[in-house]
Amino acid sequence: MLDKLKKLQYGLKVKWYEATEKHTRFIDLDGRKIQIMEGGEGEPLLYLHSAYGENLWLPFHQKLAERFRVIAPAHPGFADSEGIEEIDSMEDMIFHYLDLLDYLGQDRINIAGVSLGGWIAAEFATRYPDRVKRLVLAASAGLWMADHPMTDLFAFLRRPLRLREINFHDPNSYLAELLIPTEADEERMAAAYKAMAATARLAWNPPGHNPKLAGRLRRIKSPTLIIWGDDDKLIPTAYAEEWAARIKDSRVVKIKDCGHMLMFEGEDDFVAAISDFLGRS
Predict the structure, then answer these.
(1) Cα(140)–Cα(120) distance, integer angstroms
(2) Full-model pTM
(3) Residue 100: CB partners within 8 Å, gap ≥ 6?
(4) If 81 and its partner were Cys, which of 19, 74, 96, 118 is the partner (CB 3.0–4.6 Å)?
(5) Are 208 and 150 in contact (CB under 8 A)?
(6) How far is C-alpha 91 from the chain's CA centre?
(7) Distance, CA of 278 to CA of 66 (rounded, Å)
(8) How far apart are alpha carbons 106 and 65 in whole angstroms?
């Protein structure tokens, strides 16, 4: 009964945020419609979402927006953003975000990315280090450790119970059930397949990483925060130290009793770590 109440409360928060303030707008970026959520005041923060597709204004967005001007675009192929047919590689995605930041007039900006979004953020920072003020990589894909292989997310798309086990420290929590329901409706399944199809254009072969990225991370100039759940079963926590070893001026924060979906399961610690890091002079 308590879990049902918590699920209801979380869902009502999301509906309330959408009803009381319209965060979503659309822009025309070189003939492509791009969906962007924005909210809050203060220093701009570009949030790059995971393959899950956090394309509603969620409680963690709202908490970050209490300190920052959060800019959260949907990657091409996610939600209502167009242009995925023009993206065949991570290089194409980086050019997309270069064009987007130019459109938004953001010459140098803080960037935070989770999982797939962290990979995009890291690739962007290696190519355009002077465009990144501070960098946050949370449970990021992009590297490969033979001794700690990532779990193949694509293999479990139709197995929600297994997906919850992979993504959450507590797969039986109300949040795990809310975000990955045992019985998903047709609309949610269609959105999930669309997101996975878009992700596959970047992360199918080789799976979830760029073999050249590790050698390029030395080019990152910005102070970097690496956040990981201490029970990440999708991208093992050992990767946090690997990122830190390859990026100068970086540090690691681990969230206790937290899996891969740390912006949900470790929401308060996730927001606090980012706020503290970006708030430093």
Answers:
(1) 9
(2) 0.93
(3) 29, 34, 73
(4) 74
(5) yes
(6) 18
(7) 13
(8) 17
Radius of gyration of the chain (CA): 17
Distance from chain centroid for Cα 67: 19
Residue 196 structure tokens:
């996975």
Ranges assigned E (strand) in the chain: 24-29, 32-39, 43-48, 68-73, 109-114, 132-138, 224-229, 250-255
DSSP string, 209-238: B-TTHHHHGGG--S-EEEEEETT-SSS-TH
Superfamily of domain 2-278, CATH level 4? Alpha/Beta hydrolase fold, catalytic domain (3.40.50.1820)
Q: What token pair was written down for 9?
A: 């409360």
What tokens appear for 277 in the block? 């890091």
CA distance 228 to 242: 12
